[in-house]
Prior knowledge:
The chain has 110 residues and is an alpha+beta fold. It has a domain at 31-104: CATH 2.40.50.40. 55% of the residues lie in helices and 16% in strands. A hairpin with a 2-residue loop joins strand 2 and strand 3 (68-72). This is Chemokine interleukin-8-like domain-containing protein.
Amino acid sequence: MQLCIRRLACQAFLVGVVILAAAAAETKTSDCCKVVSLNPITAPIIGYRMQKKNPPCVNAVIFETTEGEVCSHWKQDWVHAKIKELEHARRARKTALKTTATTTTTTSSP
């Protein structure tokens, strides 16, 4: 009798582990782009990241907008132009921060 209860407890535990593992795998794959848009984005874009193909996920550029994330086709000309624009702005900000830090350091010295 006691052996039967232990087996049932063990089986219940294993079923729970399998369900949790399946839920975690499902959550992971649902956070990727499975389809992409060819249309330009009208909402303000605040960032981006690249996604590599890993089925069911597809190659995509994921733009972060003020309205949420948008999956875009990585071969579109407007996507390349937008990435260049975002990278240029990022480099300009980085340079401005370095210049400000250098100016503050040199002007604060006696």
